[in-house]
Design a protein that fits this description.
- By secondary structure, this protein is α/β, with parallel strands linked by helices.
- Helix content is 32%, strand content 16%.
- It has 2 domains: 263 residues, Alkaline Phosphatase, subunit A, CATH 3.40.720.10; 66 residues, Arylsulfatase, C-terminal domain (2-Layer Sandwich), CATH 3.30.1120.10.
- The chain is built from 15 helices and 15 strands.
- A hairpin with a 6-residue loop joins strand 14 and strand 15.
- The radius of gyration is 26 Å and the shape is globular.
Length: 446
């Protein structure tokens, strides 16, 4: 009887209410911290093969994050390259298509910056800059609610890092997009005596001197602006006061060895500043989960092939380091030739920000997925020069570097057989050259 009663009770009991499915959690939108470093060459970093301690903190980030082994700047000029980084566009598309800084660049539909798009998602945005060449008057920091720039001159890396660390101390618990700009190896290289003392003369520097491809005395033969020679090789002199009658002191190998040391010391100062910024991210949950991007924006010629400074279309000017680090992002190296224009956009996507869709609509690609192997750099025709060389376009793709010069003959280099790009093999590979030229023209919209 008892069993029958229990069976009837169970049959009459109401069915349990269905358990609602668990709500799908919204993807977390992380903070993004971008550190850009001017005049930084990958072959002077530890992870890029240099044996001296110029970049130990950046080397550590490269071991922990995603390192893009061949990153190409769209133009070897600070403002144009930064705007490409912020918009995902080439300079001819965003409009700052000059080697000099623009005056009052403004965005429009189709050229929105990452700062504008992230601000629309209630990210707190800030830019802390080393010099006014990228300041508010240029339009480069469009979209940043707070812009901290010097009134004049150039801030040293330690000062910039201290201001960035202070900002993170106040706002690191929020969702932020912070851009910190360091001058890096930009000339004139005038490091502190303490920094310079860390880099003595050494056989490695002698090897660099031997690899210039020209004798140091070549720089006494004319063809170089006096201001460039002084800023690079005699920074102790007052370059702005140079006049036509000014005689540049005699240049020899010793001057280049000192340039190398000063360049190393300036890179080390930038690296220490980077370390302080990384340390400032620790301790607050939101900041610790930030997506950190560190990128050079253009390289620096230190005498190779008789070139000094930046603005030319050489490998020393075009190739830059780029590293992306975040929690849950596995460390790896990406060997494909990629464009600097896509680096920040890739970080924005990994951060889970809706701004990615706006950058993707402007043409940015996700380098953390399957990046297209191929990156184009361009330089417009320069004015105020005798015999101007016309525009130059350089495509890195696979093992090839193709140089398209509409007003002169083109060039082709096999990077596997000739990593220093010394032998033009265009005549030996006509079919490959034709395919690369077609790719250049397609990218230029011709």
């Amino acid at each position: 009887m008892l069993l029958s009663f229990l069976a009837c009770a169970l049959l009459q009991a109401p069915e349990p209410a269905p358990v609602p499915p668990a709500a799908t959690p919204k993807p977390e939108r992380r903070s993004v911290v971008l550190v850009t470093i001017e005049a930084l060459r990958p072959d002077w970093t530890g992870f890029g093969g240099w044996s001296r301690p110029t970049t130990p903190r950046l080397d550590a980030l490269a071991r922990e994050g995603v390192t893009f082994e061949r990153t190409v700047t769209p133009m070897p000029a600070p403002a144009a390259a930064h705007l490409s980084l912020f918009t995902g566009l080439d300079p001819r598309e965003h409009g700052a298509n000059e080697l000099v800084s623009p005056k009052g660049w403004t965005s429009r539909a189709g050229t929105r910056t990452a700062a504008e798009l992230l601000a629309g998602e209630l990210y707190r945005t800030a830019a802390i800059l080393s010099h006014k060449g990228l300041g508010k008057a240029t339009g480069v920091p469009t979209g940043f609610a707070y812009v901290d720039e010097p009134e004049s001159g150039v801030r040293d890396a330690a000062t910039v890092a201290a201001r960035a660390a202070k900002w993170l101390e106040v706002h690191g618990g929020e969702r932020v997009f912070l851009w910190v700009h360091l001058k890096g190896g930009l000339e004139p290289n005038v490091p502190s005596a303490e920094q310079l003392a860390r880099f003595s003369l050494a056989p490695e520097l002698d090897a660099r001197l031997a690899g210039l491809g020209v004798a140091p005395e070549r720089f006494n033969d004319g063809g170089f602006q006096k201001t460039t020679l002084v800023r690079m090789l005699f920074p102790e002199l007052d370059a702005p006061q140079i006049h036509k009658q000014f005689q540049v002191p005699r240049i020899d190998g010793g001057r280049f060895l000192e340039l190398f040391r000063r360049y190393e010391a300036d890179l080390a100062a930038a690296d220490e500043a980077l370390g302080r910024i990384v340390d400032a991210l620790a301790g607050k949950a939101a900041a610790e989960r930030a997506v950190l991007v560190v990128a050079g924006v253009y390289g620096q010629a230190l005498g190779e092939a008789a070139e000094l400074g930046h603005g030319e279309m050489t490998r020393e000017n075009l190739l830059v380091p780029a590293v992306l680090r975040a929690r849950e992002l596995a460390a790896r190296k990406v060997p494909a030739s990629v464009s600097l224009r896509d680096v920040l956009a890739s970080a924005v996507k990994f951060a889970g920000a809706k701004a990615w869709s706006g950058l993707a609509a402007q043409g940015a690609q996700d380098l953390l997925a399957s990046p297209i192997d191929g990156a184009l750099a361009s330089r417009p025709e320069r004015e105020h020069e005798k015999n101007p060389p016309g525009p130059v376009h350089v495509l890195y793709a696979g093992k090839w570097r193709y140089v398209h010069r509409p007003t002169r003959s083109d060039l082709l280099f096999d990077l596997e057989a000739d990593p220093r790009e010394t032998k033009n093999v265009l005549a030996e590979h006509p079919e490959q050259a034709a395919a690369l030229l077609a790719e250049v023209r397609a990218r230029l919209g011709q």
